[in-house]
Amino acid sequence: MKTLIHTDKELIESIIRQSDVCFVGMADTDGTPYVLPMNFGYKDGVIYLHSAQDGRSISILERNPKVCITFSIDHALVFQHPEVACSYRMRSKSVIAWGKVAYEEVFDKKVEALDIIMKQYSDKTFRYSDPAVRNVKIWTVDIDEVSCKEFGAPHKKSY
């Protein structure tokens, strides 16, 4: 089994779209890491997230807006030999994206962002109350850098 590095944009976007949650990593100015599992939306190289207006993550991001966001799918335990512990590993595909959080404050743009997030989870069309839109914090992350790996890929046999 081996690790493959992928650069194909369609595969990267497919992994993102197949993910149920993403894990958003950030670091406070003293280097303390903080990682949150979050619902998300994705469109045209931008990751959309939402949260309350304040809290630990917002406090951290106000001081350091850099984030690392991980998506992971197709998890399965695999092994090369059932009696050799070191041959066991998890097969998976993952995308790691880096960028900086910005906040969307324009009402109509917040609604668009919520629609993008909801599209990740449902084909339905939703309406949002004005207070809900005003009170939600919308995060946007333009992807500056991305990596994609497939872990536990089988070796190709040559005959």
What does this protein structure show overall?
- It is a single chain.
- The chain has 159 residues and is α+β, with helices and mostly antiparallel strands.
- It has a single domain (2-153), classed as Electron Transport, Fmn-binding Protein, Chain A (Pnp Oxidase, Chain A), CATH 2.30.110.10.
- The chain is 23% helix and 47% strand.
- The chain has four helices and eight strands, in the order βαββββαββααβ.
- Strands 1, 2, 3, 4, 5, 6, 7 and 8 form an eight-stranded antiparallel β-sheet that branches.
- A hairpin with a 2-residue loop joins β4 (41-43) and β5.
- It is globular and about 60 Å long.
- It starts with a strand and ends in a 6-residue tail after the last strand.
- The model has no long low-confidence stretch (mean pLDDT 90).
From the structure above, extract its key features.
159 residues, alpha+beta, eight-stranded antiparallel β-sheet, 4 helices, 8 strands, 47% strand, globular, Split_barrel_FMN-bd, Pyridox_Oxase-rel, Pyridoxamine 5'-phosphate oxidase family protein
Number of domains: 1
The SSE order reads EHEEEEHEEHHE
Secondary structure: number of strands: 8
CATH topology: Pnp Oxidase, Chain A
- Poorly predicted residue ranges: none
Main β sheet profile? 8 strands, antiparallel
Shape-level CATH architecture: Roll
- Per DSSP, the total helix count is 4
Question: Mean of residue pLDDT?
Answer: 90
Shape label: globular
Rg is 18 Å
Structural class determined from secondary elements = alpha+beta
